[in-house]
């Protein structure tokens, strides 16, 4: 990646942070918890995006951000009151801004009508305010945003191409200038220097400098920081007057300066007759330059002055120690986090944590190495035990300590990949707004535990199922306002999303206070679709869980917003793919709650260690429902080669693992083995027949693809304590290879328990 | 080699400055806001400071005032980054003691020119 592309990537990363900050700030304003700092942070977020976008010539983004910023400035300077309506417009503007950023990054197009509509709404909020720089772009929607700045342009640095070119064109030949320059003390106080300016003048051509020392007082009266010298520079240069003026651009307020063009009398005489016109033109240009330099100062908007100083004073009371200033704002977050009972959050919120950015590859390499370390530590321990050393011997005690340390290192390293779920949660307010808009419902979102941490990969893959469940909760759960009122509830429904750590997993609950699952309807759909027999007798819970069956959701009952056509079965599968589980609990009239639980990391796995043939295998614990010892009456032959096992009235395939993986030719004796009931990601159940169970432990996952190649039926490998490699079974594949027609009813129902 | 301290809360802007300045042979030290800038200044003596205006914790104007109030550091030229060529903003920057300014998005050539104009 070249340097510019890298900076561009940084810009978009930063945009994401700014957008999050923007939304969080606006939501705080909406709920009335905002202070001046929040408003400033919101303004700064948009301002920052605009600044960066300008550098990359992202004109649409710059344009919109500018309009947005102008409106926010009204808010910041208290000329606009943050009423609910105002904040809602701004929240929608934040959504559009986010879309524009996405389009700028990934290409594509935005909803132009929506964007233009919001531009109008934002401008309407500013109202009749005649704010010169903001009003000008308002005049032509599609015009370049920087147009008004050109008017301010004789400062030279202000706009890149114009001034220099123009002057070069005009001033073909050499001109002579008389520059009279008398600095005041302020000039030096701002670290400007006369000598440098004079040198720079002379660099434009050749000339003569005379210094007026008449103002120097007697030594006793001399202020060492005073300004007593004045200079006259007679300059002959090919550069135009703007180039000369540019040299003094930083100091013209802190000195007496006159720059006069000396029209060469002899040249005038030679070019008889033409010169008056040129002279007039030059005079006009010179005058124009002056006027342009003065004007903006005269009628510039007073917008910025008002707020900044007090805000700055509040942000850093006197020479504040570094960490203290942002505390008030962070404290709120900390308080919110503390409410949700997450101690880590409070710690994270209390001080701005020092951070470094590290390439993910390096972290993963470290995790890999620590995995090796754990394996070797276990191996070493086992060898020492085998060597017959006493438990209390120095070596054994030392090894215990090593084990402790190794575990700690492993946890710490895993923690590097861990991130708060906040990054996913902060997208939810927008989602809820949009879905509520489309469905015409009023919904309040409550998030809890946003600082709960989980592995980065889990976070990345959490977004889709979570989005779908929330959409589902609003679309199917929360009732329309009139219906809620009729049911004696408030017009506004509530969707609550809470994350927490529970027994080594992360649990996310999505609950709503809607109507709950309509079991008659669910049952009817399932019967109509042939998922259950018409006379099936189901408990309430079983009925609720029917919604997870493949084929349950189809276009008929998803409303227009679920047009993406994803059913809850897909949600369930994507959660299971992460080693997670999902369940639902519902009370008619009171609402529903989905609970999903996920592993904290994908680098280690809780597995059951089993033997099949001469091999040791690992079955992921999340896939296992139960293990049982087959009895003669339960095992039936089926077709040529297949066997079935009956478990509490349901038949499911008995998969001979040793045979399936080619470890053994002849069938494994079902009665001497163990059947492990597993559930595949699609909810299908089968029983894996293995020779025996060795134990259950956490194993470090080693990618087989990275080290060897893809093997069907094997998800990954691990190294056991005795140094042997054990394959981790891909339950889905192993179960599916048995050519058996799955019965979704029997398997699906229990899958949902 | 001249050392430039850049003070800006935007990583993007810091990186763009760093690249432009390093390409022209300057040594670059970065700070994330005014408070951080003051801290960094305890350890280095830059030839020029470039600062953003709108920053959290301590904005650019207050930062300039603090530098100008420090007897050891007051002579360091300070250039202010402004997003627009807003005369009002420039006036406030001047009042705070800024030596000059650079308009964002900046042209690297102009940036270096501005630095050379104020650097001894």
The chain-level structural class of chain B is alpha/beta
Q: Identify the overall geometry of chain B.
A: globular
Distance between the termini of chain B: 12 Å
Mean pLDDT of chain B, rounded to whole units?
Answer: 86
Query: Which two chains form the greatest contact, residue counts included?
Result: A-B, 61 and 54 residues
Q: Please state roughly what percent of the residues of chain A sit in beta strands, choosing from under 5%, 5-15%, 15-25%, 25-35%, 35-45% or over 45%.
A: 15-25%
Count of strand segments of chain A: 22
Q: Percent of residues of chain B in beta strands?
A: 15-25%
CATH architecture descriptor text of the largest domain in chain A: 2-Layer Sandwich
Q: Which H/E pattern describes the elements of chain B?
A: EHEHEHEHEH
Low-confidence stretches of chain A: 129-171, 265-274, 288-351, 554-565, 739-753
Round the Cα radius of gyration of chain B to an integer and report it.
Answer: 13 Å
Q: Which structural class should the secondary elements of chain A be placed in?
A: alpha+beta
The CATH top-level class label of the largest domain in chain A: Alpha Beta
- Strand order in the largest sheet of chain B: 2-1-3-4-5
CATH topology of the largest domain in chain A: Heat Shock Protein 90
CATH class of chain B: Alpha Beta
CA-CA gap between termini of chain A:
50 Å
Report the CATH architecture of chain B: 3-Layer(aba) Sandwich
Tell me the name of the CATH homologous superfamily of chain B: Response regulator
Query: What is the overall number of helices of chain B?
Result: 5
What does this structure look like?
The complex is a heterodimer of chains A (753) and B (120). By secondary structure, chain A is an alpha+beta fold. By secondary structure, chain B is an alpha/beta fold. In chain B, strands 2-1-3-4-5 form a 5-stranded parallel sheet, sandwiched between helices. Chain B starts with a strand and ends with a helix. The model of chain B has no long low-confidence stretch (mean pLDDT 86). The interface between A and B is large, with 61 and 54 residues.
């Amino acid at each position: 990646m070249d340097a510019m592309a890298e900076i561009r990537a940084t810009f978009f990363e930063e945009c994401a942070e700014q957008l999050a900050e923007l939304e969080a700030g606006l939501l705080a304003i909406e709920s009335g918890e905002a202070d001046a700092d929040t408003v400033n942070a919101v303004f700064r977020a948009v301002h920052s995006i605009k600044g960066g976008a300008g550098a990359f010539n992202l004109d649409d983004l710059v344009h919109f951000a500018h309009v947005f910023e102008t409106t926010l400035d009204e808010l910041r300077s208290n000329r606009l009151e943050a009423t609910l309506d105002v904040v809602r417009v701004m929240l929608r503007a934040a959504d559009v801004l986010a879309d524009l950023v996405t389009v700028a990054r990934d290409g594509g197009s935005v909803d132009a009508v929506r964007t233009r509509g919001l531009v109008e709404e934002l401008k309407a909020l500013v109202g009749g305010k005649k704010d010169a720089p903001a009003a000008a772009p308002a005049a032509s929607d599609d015009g370049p945003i920087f147009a008004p700045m050109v008017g301010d342009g004789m400062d030279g640095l202000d706009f890149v191409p114009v001034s220099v070119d123009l002057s070069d064109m005009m001033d073909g030949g050499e001109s002579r200038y008389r520059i009279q320059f008398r600095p005041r003390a302020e000039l030096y106080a701002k670290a400007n220097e006369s000598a440098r300016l004079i040198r720079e003048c002379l660099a434009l051509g050749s000339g003569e400098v005379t210094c007026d020392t008449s103002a120097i007082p007697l030594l006793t009266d001399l202020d060492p920081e005073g300004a007593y010298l004045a200079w006259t520079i007679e300059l002959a240069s090919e550069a135009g007057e703007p180039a000369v003026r540019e040299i003094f651009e930083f100091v013209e307020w802190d000195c007496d300066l006159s720059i006069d063009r000396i029209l060469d009398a002899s040249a005038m005489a030679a070019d008889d007759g033409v010169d008056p016109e040129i002279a007039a033109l030059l005079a006009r240009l010179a005058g124009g330059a002056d006027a342009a330099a003065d004007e903006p100062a005269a009628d510039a908007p007073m917008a910025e002055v008002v707020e900044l100083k007090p805000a700055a004073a509040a942000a850093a009371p006197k020479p504040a120690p570094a960490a203290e200033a942002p505390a008030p704002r962070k404290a709120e977050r900390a308080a919110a986090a503390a409410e949700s009972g997450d101690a880590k959050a409070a710690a994270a919120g209390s001080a701005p944590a020092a951070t470094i950015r590290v390439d993910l590859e390096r972290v993963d390499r470290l995790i890999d190495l620590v995995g090796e370390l754990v394996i070797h530590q276990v191996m070493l321990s086992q060898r020492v035990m085998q060597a017959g050393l006493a438990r209390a011997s120095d070596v054994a005690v030392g090894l215990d300590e090593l084990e402790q340390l190794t575990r700690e290192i492993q946890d710490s390293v895993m923690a590097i990949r861990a991130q708060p779920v906040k990054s996913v949660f902060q997208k939810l307010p927008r989602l809820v707004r949009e879905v509520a808009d489309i469905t015409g419902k009023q919904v309040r979102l409550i998030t809890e535990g946003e600082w709960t941490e989980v592995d980065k990969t889990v976070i990345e893959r959490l977004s889709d199922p979570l989005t779908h469940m929330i959409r589902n909760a609003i679309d199917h759960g929360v009732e329309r306002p009139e219906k809620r009122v009729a049911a004696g509830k408030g017009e506004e429904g509530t969707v609550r999303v809470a994350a927490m750590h529970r027994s080594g997993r992360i649990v996310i609950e999505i609950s709503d206070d809607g109507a709950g699952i309509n079991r008659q309807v669910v049952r009817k759909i399932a019967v109509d679709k042939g998922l259950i027999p018409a006379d099936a007798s189901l408990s309430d819970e079983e009925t609720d869980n029917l919604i997870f069956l493949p084929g349950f959701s189809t276009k008929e009952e998803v409303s227009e917003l679920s047009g993406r056509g994803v059913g809850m079965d897909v949600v369930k599968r994507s959660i299971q793919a992460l080693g997670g589980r999902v369940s639902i609990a519902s009370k008619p009239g009171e609402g529903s709650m989905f609970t999903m639980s996920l592993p904290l990391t994908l680098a280690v796995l809780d597995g059951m260690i089993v033997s099949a043939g001469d091999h040791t295998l690992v079955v992921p614990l999340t896939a296992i429902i139960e293990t049982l010892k087959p009895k003669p009456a339960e095992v039936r032959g089926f077709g040529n080669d297949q066997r079935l096992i009956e478990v509490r009235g349901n038949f499911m395939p008995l998969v001979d693992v040793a045979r399936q993986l080619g470890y053994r030719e002849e069938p494994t004796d079902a009665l001497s083995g163990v059947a492990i009931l597993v559930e595949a990601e699609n909810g299908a159940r089968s029983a894996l027949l293995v020779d025996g169970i060795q134990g259950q432990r956490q194993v470090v996952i080693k990618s087989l693809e990275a080290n060897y190649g893809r093997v069907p039926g094997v998800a990954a490998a691990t190294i056991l304590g005795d140094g042997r490699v054990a394959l981790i079974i891909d339950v889905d594949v192993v179960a599916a290879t048995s050519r058996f027609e799955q019965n979704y009813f029997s398997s699906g129902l229990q899958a949902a328990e | 080699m001249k050392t430039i301290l850049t003070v800006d809360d935007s990583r993007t802007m810091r990186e763009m400055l760093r690249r432009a300045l390093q390409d022209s042979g300057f040594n670059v030290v970065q700070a994330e806001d005014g408070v951080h800038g003051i801290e960094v200044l305890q350890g280095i003596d830059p030839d020029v400071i470039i600062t953003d205006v709108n920053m959290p914790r301590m904005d650019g104007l207050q930062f300039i005032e603090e530098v100008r109030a420090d007897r050891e550091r007051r002579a360091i030229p300070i250039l202010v980054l402004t997003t627009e060529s807003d005369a009002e903003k420039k006036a406030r920057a001047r009042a705070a003691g800024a030596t000059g300014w650079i308009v964002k998005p900046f042209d690297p050539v102009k940036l270096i020119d501005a630095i050379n104009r104020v650097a001894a």
